[in-house]
Amino acid sequence: MALYEQLLHLEQTKRFLQNNGVQNIDFGLILGSGLGELATEVENPIIFNYKDIPHFPVSTVVGHAGRLVYGELCGKKVLIMDGRFPFYEGYPMETVTFPIRLMKLLEVETMIVTNSAGGSNPNFKPGDLMLITDHINITGTNPLIGANDDRFGPRFPDMSHAYHVYGQEVVRKAAKEVGVELQEGVYTGLSGPTYETPAEVRMVQVLGGDAVGMSTVPEVIVANHSGIKVIGISCITNLAAGLQANLNHEEVVETTQRVKESFKGLVRKVIEIY
């Protein structure tokens, strides 16, 4: 898609949301597999099904509701993506990251990105919550490939602090206040949809990755390019290949259901004290 056409679509989507009640936003949130229950706690919600939003694709992954929720959470105005558009569903990167550029146009300054991930760090266990301190991109691509639009950001954006330093401090403080044992580590993004092989997990460990997943990295790259501050939290839903017998999506959803109260409590506290 040409830059002009993409910007036109973004402006049309922006106007649609604003004309239907979306105004000031304190936080943008992206909720990963099985973590969407937080969206049901938004007060005075305005809910948009993805299929009803101009130029929005539809998420088909189990555990992704496929709706945009605007309202109040912990006294702050939030815009929540309850479900994302993974690269492995065949969407081009410009579609995967369309909502991030939309948030930029809606003047979102801080974004909380969550995901379900496999633990490649042998000290992790299913149900742990991990503060993302950095990431490794081995998806095989980059969402900024192609002509750059200077209205969003520079041609060569700095990724030294892709995950906002102050935001990390807030998550640590919030975890202490709500009594959550918080892990920290590097998230490794792969393309999916296959789970990683044991050999790939060993490679990730050598590279310094503590968790593996199929999302987040493209979104964070575009957010960083756009000047949006990012806070990242992973729910470790299983141990990565080679560290447990087998992997399946049902376990991912089951684990997120088990830890959903801790997850919601942590995110709510982050929003409250940020």
What does this entry show, briefly?
The chain is an alpha/beta fold and 274 residues long. It contains seven helices and nine strands.
Please describe what this structure looks like.
The termini are far apart. The chain is α/β, with parallel strands linked by helices and about 270 residues long. α1 packs across α3 and α4 (about 165-180) packs across α7 (about 250-274). It has one domain (about 5-145, about 155-274): Rossmann fold (3-Layer(aba) Sandwich), CATH 3.40.50.1580. It is about 30% helix and about 25% strand. Strands 5-8-7-6-9 form a five-stranded mixed beta barrel, surrounded by four helices. The chain has helices spanning about 5-20, 95, 100-105, 165-180, 200-205, 215-225, 250-274, and strands at about 25-30, 45-50, 65-75, 75-80, 110-120, 130-135, 180-190, 210-215, 230-240. It contains seven helices and nine strands; from the N terminus they run αββββααββαβαβαβα.
List its salient traits.
274 residues; alpha/beta; 32% helix; 9 strands; 5-stranded mixed beta barrel
- Specify the CATH class: Alpha Beta
Looking at the overall shape, the CATH architecture is 3-Layer(aba) Sandwich
Count up the helices: 7
Total separate domains: 1
Distance between the termini: 37 Å
Order of helices and strands: HEEEEHHEEHEHEHEH
How do the helices and strands line up, and which of them pair or pack?
Elements: H1 3-19, E1 27-31, E2 43-49, E3 67-73, E4 76-82, H2 93-96, H3 98-105, E5 110-119, E6 129-137, H4 165-178, E7 182-189, H5 198-207, E8 211-213, H6 217-225, E9 229-239, H7 249-273
Parallel strand pairs: 1-4, 1-5, 5-9, 6-7, 7-8
Antiparallel strand pairs: 2-3, 3-4, 5-8, 6-9
